[in-house]
Amino acid sequence: MTQHPRIGIRPTIDGRRRGVRESLEDQTMAMAQRVAKLFTENLRYIDGEPVEVVIADTTIGGVVEAQNCAAKFRRENVGLTLSVTPCWCYGTETVDMDANMPHAIWGFNGTERPGAVYLAAALAGHAQLGIPAFGIYGKEVQDCDDETIPADVRGRLLDYATAGLAVAQMKGESYLSMGAVSMGIAGSVVKDEFFGPYLGMRNEYIDMTEFTRRIDEKIYDEEEYEVAYKWIRENLTQGEDFNPEHNRHPELHEEWWKFVTKMTLIGRDLMRGNPKLAEAGWGEEAQGHGALAAGFQGQRQWTDHFPNGDVLETLLNTNFDWTGKRQPCILATENDSLNGASMLFGHLLTNTPQIFSDVRTYWSPESIERITGWKPEGRAAVGLLDLRNSGSTTLDGAGRSVRDGEHVIKPWWEMTDEDQQAALDATTFHPATYEYFPGGGFSTHFRTSGEMPVTMCRINLVAGKPVIQIAEGWTVELPDEVSTIIENRTDRAWPTTWFVPNLTGEGAFASVYDVMNNWGANHGAISYGHIGGQLITLASMLRIPVNMHNVPEERIFRPKAWSLYGTADLESADYRACESFGPLYR
Questions:
Q1: Are 181 and 188 in contact (CB under 8 A)?
Q2: Which of 133, 140, 155, 483 has the most CB atoms at less than 10 Å from its CB?
Q3: Active-site residue 334, yes or no?
């Protein structure tokens, strides 16, 4: 990311002079400065840099000062705004009128000056103008000289800023389609009418023959290739060949390793560019496609003839490679762009790499016991979902990084040498199943360890319009012999994650079976942490309704105008609000 989108803070104030405004100047600007400190100390961009904040040059008491602030924010690349005030201000005269970015207002809950009254008036103005804004209002009354940010306000501020930064970091970036539609998968029909109006992203397209051209003409950094190949052969453990004897080709394995190493370099260069290519005379190729996310079609036209993309996808999605720890790419298997966008949401909200998987099988506790002889216990006692797919499951999905004694998936800048080695030690790369991948290559295999809090989400298109579904839950471990029996029923060369969603006893979350039965597609994006609330906030910013979730009501945070579409049935109100306001970049 070459230019960071910033958070703009707008200290709004009572415009009346003769002692009123003058008495509030220091308090109002100090409020903005405290929030700026909160953001810069707690939030980072996906490249690891601390978030940057811009504060208006003056407090905003009327139209001209609002216009001056807007002009500054345009110059300073502000991607979301937060207005703060401890007092009454002139509602529509002081609000931010930019309809193409998220907005929020924190109205200080104090009785000396009516900051909460302004909050209500300004939010009503936002709704009337068709520019929805989030309202942040503390539950407890504070004294006017109280300089703390209460815990409930702090949580809302950080949730809003985290989701707003996700919106801002997507804007103007691209999704790169490497190939076209894989095996009739609807998500790999890449839709400009989704990425543009809803995410503010452009779409780029290449044919997969670009990989063969770059391999044949050596359009990659040849010195880096030697380093990468050496690291891959020393660090990626080749596992057992599970193919029957007549489908084994050990004489080709080393050529496959060389080929997939080049694919990995080329895939990264296609997404992000590489100045080394310009030094070798490949100026156009050096630029890349400005891709924040991408997808590789692979099956079947590529994999019927060439080694598959599993190593390419696995390594690019991982927190580290031969260069050490570094920012992961977001790369979807089978060019499922909707799952790629879902992965991107999780990545931007958490700064962590994402698991891409089939939502493959619901395993009831009875079926597990019948097949394996083991009766599930603990979290698995209600059954589980088998998340497994050949392709882009990050090595970090093995769950071998540790923080405070717990299995976690970390942002890349927190990775230690021990974390990297543990992920490599937990993973084997097996010659790909010939019936699926006659062109050869390798499949990544590990089992996710520990019980980690995770959130699975998926964007689907319904008659051209997006919806998103969200399931918070936990990864679980099964006894080794149980996992092996279940894996052998599908493909034991693929990565395995056992997932138990949190159940509510109602609707799509009445049982694990109901979650599977209501899931909208064959894939899901899995992110570390229970981030369903932030996903709901992000979806409302983009005007994508949520068709199913298991997030407790107290963690749901949407623009204030959503309540004007109904308060008894929040799911229906969400649909009505998203339809009424339309996509963010309409």
A1: yes
A2: 133
A3: yes
In degrees rounded to 5, what are phi and psi of residue 190? -75, 120
The percentage of residues in the chain with a pLDDT greater than 90, rounded to a whole number, is 91
- pLDDT for 111 beyond 70: no
CA distance 581 to 565: 11
Residue 358 annotated in active site = yes
Q: Which of 446, 453, 423 is nearest to 357 (CA)?
A: 446
Least confident of 2-6, 205-209, 254-258, 514-518: 2-6
Taking Cα atoms as reference points, which of 485, 444, 440, 481 lies closest to residue 243?
440
Taking only the tens place, the pLDDT of each residue in 440-461 is 999 999 999 989 999 999 999 9
pLDDT averaged over every residue in the chain: 95
Among the listed residues 173, 241, 269, 334, the single catalytic one is 334
Residues 219-239 have a mean pLDDT of: 98
Largest CA distance in the chain: 92
pLDDT at 560 over 60: yes
Neighbours of 138 (CB within 10 A): 20
Strand partners, 78: 6
Q: Distance between CA atoms of 197 and 341, rounded to whole angstroms?
A: 14
CA distance 9 to 78: 9
For the stretch 179-201, pLDDT in tens is 999 999 999 999 999 999 999 99
Q: What angle do CA 248, 267, 318 make, to 5 degrees?
A: 80
Quick check: 541 and 134 in contact, CB under 8 A?
no
Instruction: Tell me if 371 sits within 8 A of 485, measured CB to CB.
Output: yes
Query: Which token pair is 141?
Result: 């009354």
Contacts by residues 218-223 (CB-CB < 8 Å, ≥ 24 positions apart): 219/266, 219/277, 219/280, 219/282, 219/285, 220/262, 220/265, 220/266, 220/269, 220/274, 220/277, 221/265, 221/274, 221/276, 221/277, 221/280
Average pLDDT over residues 141-166: 91
Give me the pLDDT at residue 15, please. 86
Three-state DSSP state, 466: strand
Out of 358, 477, 487, 514, pick the active-site residue: 358
